[in-house]
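Protein details
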Amino acid sequence: MLNVNAKNLGHVAILSFEGEITNGQTRILRKAVEIMAPSRALVLDLSRVTAIDAHGLGVMLELRQETQARGLEFELMNVSKPVSRVLEVSHLDSVFKMSCGVAALPVIHRRYFATMAA
């Protein structure tokens, strides 16, 4: 089962997933991205994802393409070891923008908070 926790931080939507991104579970991933679409950047936190299959990878690639076609940033954050390994083996680690923790917040978000603090 795939669970999602959504957070909207101003211009950045963070979707934290827990479970498996596999065939039969990807509808949850798609629906979560659709709901958070109005943001300027979308970050998927994969720290608690235990597995991903070819179908899950395909859906993530489609969502990345759709998001970027709308002019939004798309990023993976805190990629778990099992997912990281699959991304490496499939050579998709060079396709997805990935980072850890606060560094994952896109530049647009850091600029937004910098102006709020000034």
Q: What stands out?
A: The mean pLDDT is 85. Residues 3-117 form a domain with the Transcription Regulator spoIIAA fold (CATH 3.30.750.24).
